[in-house]
Amino acid sequence: MFAVILLAALFLSFELLPSAKADEEVCLKIALPEMADRDQSAERYRAAMAEAGLCVQPVWLPNKRTAVSLKRGEIDGVFASGETIQQSAGVPLVAGGVVVGRPKSLLITADATVHALSDLKDKDIGVWLGDDRGKQELVGLADIITVPGGAGMMLRMLRHGRLDGLLIDDFSLNQTEGVPEGYRAIELETRTSYSWLRKEYEALLPQFNRGTDIFRAALDMTNPESKS
pLDDT tens digits for 149-207? Predict the structure, then answer.
């Protein structure tokens, strides 16, 4: 009888091994934004998450594809996004507990008559395709031109006279050439961004938050903040 019980116990232990191994092999695909040193940043992010006990595969995605990729299950999370990602992705998400950044929303224009969004009537204003928050800000105030090519394309269109202005955050602007000569930046608001995971990975948030803290420190993003 004892031998039968022992064999049954051994059988059950072997049955459990594959599922435990599968859990260990979970490697999350996380979308990262445009960065000037993308290869180095990706490696730092991967190393930071590994130090926190989490395997991640950084994925570089245009802003316009992030929500769609979450909806299709092509990625498991996003390094930095505002709360509008929950609505645009259309799938259950959970926010990390660390504030990734507080990017400033900027209006770039050379028009001296423009001082606020209320001055944009009949103006062609560029918005990065996928920036739902930016489009919401401009509804009823300007003619919205969605631009698929990101910050670089918007700035080229601005210089070539195809736009009267554009909405962009200061992080994305700093990854390009900055404010073009002859133009000025009008600060509109400060947004708060967090990292996000699909709801099914909520149990991994402690490691995810720890990895985000480590990555911020590696990028000299000092004084990590906790979500209130």
Answer: 778 899 999 999 999 999 998 888 887 878 999 999 999 999 899 999 999 999 999 99
Average confidence (pLDDT) over 73-84: 93
**How far is the C-alpha of 93 from the C-alpha of 73, rounded, in Å?**
12
Spatial separation of the C-alpha atoms in residues 114 and 166, rounded to whole Å: 12
Q: What is the pLDDT of residue 20?
A: 34
Identify the bridge partners of residue 178 per DSSP, sorted by sequence position: none
CA–CA gap between residue 12 and residue 68 (Å, rounded): 41
- Counting the structural domains of the chain, the total is 2
Sheet of 27-32: strand order equals 55-60, 27-32, 77-81, 193-198, 93-101, 225-226
Q: Who has greater pLDDT, 131 or 91? A: 91
Q: Which domain holds residue 27?
A: 22-102+192-226
Residue from 92, 87, 95 nearest 192 by CA? 95
CA angle (84 as vertex; 78, 87 as ends), nearest 5: 95
Candidates 145, 148, 134; CA nearest to 68 is: 148
Tokens of 115: 């001082």
Give the dihedral of Cα atoms 20, 23, 25, 28; nearest 10 deg: 180
Q: Which two tokens stand for residue 143?
A: 């003619």
Helix (H) or strand (E) holding 226: strand 225-226
In a shared domain, residues 200 and 141: no
